[in-house]
Structure formats: C-alpha cells, structure tokens
Write a structure and sequence with these properties.
- This protein is mainly α and about 140 residues long.
- The protein has one domain.
- It has 6 helices and no strands.
- Helix 1 runs parallel beside helix 3.
C-alpha cells in the first residue's frame, strides 16, 4: 500500500488527473497501515512529482528564444520579478487543484533554487497530508 500511495501521489502531482487523497483516506480507514508511513509515502511521492514539474520548467527555459515559444522574453522577466516577490510563499499552495501543478512548473521556469523549492513544496504538501490524516483520525 505504501508503494501504491507513493506512486499515486507522484502521478497526482503531475498533470494527470489522479487523487492521492482518496487512496490515503482509504488506507487509513482500514487501520492496517501506520499513519506516519502513509504520510511519508504520500508526501515523498507528491514532492517527487512536483520536482518533475520543476525540472520540466527548468528545461523549457532553454527554448525561451525559440520563435514558437509561447511566452515573450519580456513576459518571462516580468513573471520572474513577480515570482521572486511572491513565488516562494505561493508554493505552500502547490497542493491546490488546478493551480498547484503550474506553480511548480513556473518555479522551475523561474530558476528557483532546488533546495528552496523542496522546502516550500514539502511544507505545503506535507502539511496538507498531515491535516488530512488528522481530520480522518478524528472522524474514524
């Protein structure tokens, strides 16, 4: 179950429409798995998926001068300025549906250092899973 949760959380952090939360809560309701192990697997997988997005963002930056690149250089510089101003904090919300995955991609595009990225994303995603486990344990 831990490996399945890790893989599901990893894939859910990419553009694939998966829900690691449902698997986490299902595993919790069985009572057969330790909550800390489930938290670790879900957090590790989700942060790994976000790191894939960050890496893709870093890779996409190499094409910024290509004529078919969809974002102008001036827009990239403007986005870098905004991300440098708010980006680190915004990664606490990288777990949110719809906006979370693009946030992690933009962090890579904006050349956010990997250690800072990992810190903020782990705090956000790990905090969300901890809260889910806490709420689930109170209702079970």
């Amino acid at each position: 179950m831990y490996l399945a949760l890790l893989i599901t959380a990893l894939l859910a952090a990419t553009v694939l429409p998966l829900s690691s939360e449902a698997l986490l809560i299902a595993a919790l309701t069985t009572g057969n798995y330790h909550p800390l192990g489930l938290w670790s697997a879900a957090t590790l997988g989700n942060v790994a998926g976000a790191t894939i997005n960050w890496t893709l963002g870093r890779y996409l930056l190499h094409f910024k001068t290509h004529p078919y690149f969809p974002i102008s250089l001036s827009r990239i510089h403007q986005a870098q300025h905004q991300f440098n101003r708010y980006g680190h904090w915004s990664l606490l919300f990288s777990w949110l549906p719809i906006i979370g995955d693009p946030l992690t991609l933009v962090a890579g595009l904006m050349k956010m250092p990997l250690p800072s990225f990992l810190l903020w994303v782990t705090l956000g995603k790990g905090g969300r899973y901890a809260l889910l486990i806490l709420i689930s344990s109170l209702t079970l």
